[in-house]
Design brief:
Layout: H1 11-31, H2 62-68, H3 71-80, H4 89-101, H5 105-109, E1 116-119, E2 122-127, E3 130-132, E4 135-138, E5 147-150, H6 153-158, H7 161-170, H8 189-203, H9 214-225, H10 230-237, H11 246-251, H12 255-261
Antiparallel strand pairs: 1-2, 2-5, 3-4
Helix pairs in contact: 4-9
């Protein structure tokens, strides 16, 4: 199928899914030999594409970040270009949230007003999978993706994101970015298309491997270079915990600790004050 590379499953994901199906078919052969006689997934190979796994994806450089969020680039591209359109504030806040918390695009797009709350005096974005099976209101990629992400001080104090969430709640909406339609099983299609196919192209940054997802790699690289504990970085981004007992060790991490020793280390060369908007 002629599927664009950006929309393809990664090699790692393909391999993982085939492995799971192989295990399932082995079980079926053992338990129901009258119905299943061979493992149709056994020894299936995965073709390595030119866009290999995530190691082929690039981080944004510090100069890229400065260009993306320069107020003379960012604000006109959103508020002037979409003057007569409903979707504006999602295009504004979602890239900023990605840069200041390292979350996945869909994790941010599905945010509900009830997910922004105070825990131990710290404003956090609480990511949980909720809803009936197959019809979940919010979904996570894996068990480690359920976490509380402390909101960066620039979000709270400079950009008034918490106040924006309260404003949306007062308007009666359940989802923070209510303007985004659900396409298939995701809310992120519009944002991804705008950012990757329009904004990055306009800035001349749409090089191979650079996309919205590059924010996650940028956050990881920035925090690693700031000597932040690797387990804190994994927890922040919802990665599976590395090492023996990682998930147990990190399960009870307090928001104030993650804020002070991890999130607050995300210091970018961006004039956030000039990005403050009225809503």
């Amino acid at each position: 199928m002629d599927v664009p590379e950006d929309d393809r499953l990664s090699v790692d994901t393909q391999t993982k899914l085939i492995s799971r199906m192989t295990s399932l078919w082995n079980f079926l052969i053992d338990e129901y030999p009258e119905y299943v006689t061979q493992n149709v997934f056994k020894k299936k190979s995965v073709t390595i594409t030119s866009r290999k796994a995530k190691d082929k994806r690039e981080s944004f450089t510090d100069e890229d970040i400065k260009t993306i969020f320069h107020h003379k680039n960012f604000l006109p591209a959103i508020f002037e270009a979409h003057d007569n359109q409903k979707i504006k504030y999602p295009y504004f806040f979602i890239p900023i949230l990605a840069l200041l918390m390292g979350a996945r695009l869909e994790e941010i797009c599905q945010m509900r007003v009830t997910d922004i709350k105070k825990v131990n005096g710290i404003w956090v974005y609480r990511i949980r999978e909720e809803g009936e099976y197959g019809d979940e209101e919010t979904r996570v990629k894996n068990p480690y993706s359920e976490r509380d992400i402390p909101l960066h001080q620039e979000l709270v104090h400079t950009l008034d994101f918490v106040r924006y969430v309260k404003h949306i709640k007062k308007l009666g909406y359940e989802r923070v970015f209510w303007e985004l339609p659900k396409r298939g099983n995701v809310y992120s299609k519009n944002v991804g298309k705008f950012f990757n196919q329009k904004y990055l192209v306009k800035l001349g940054l749409k090089k191979k491997g650079k996309s919205f997802h590059s924010f996650r790699h940028s956050v990881e690289t920035h925090l690693s270079n700031s000597n932040v504990n690797g387990r804190y970085i994994d927890f922040l981004q919802g990665h599976s915990q590395k090492g023996i007992g990682g998930s147990v060790y990190m399960k009870g991490i307090k928001p104030e600790v993650l804020l002070k020793d991890c999130v607050d280390k995300l210091s970018w060369d961006v004039n956030w004050q000039k990005l403050k908007v009225k809503f």
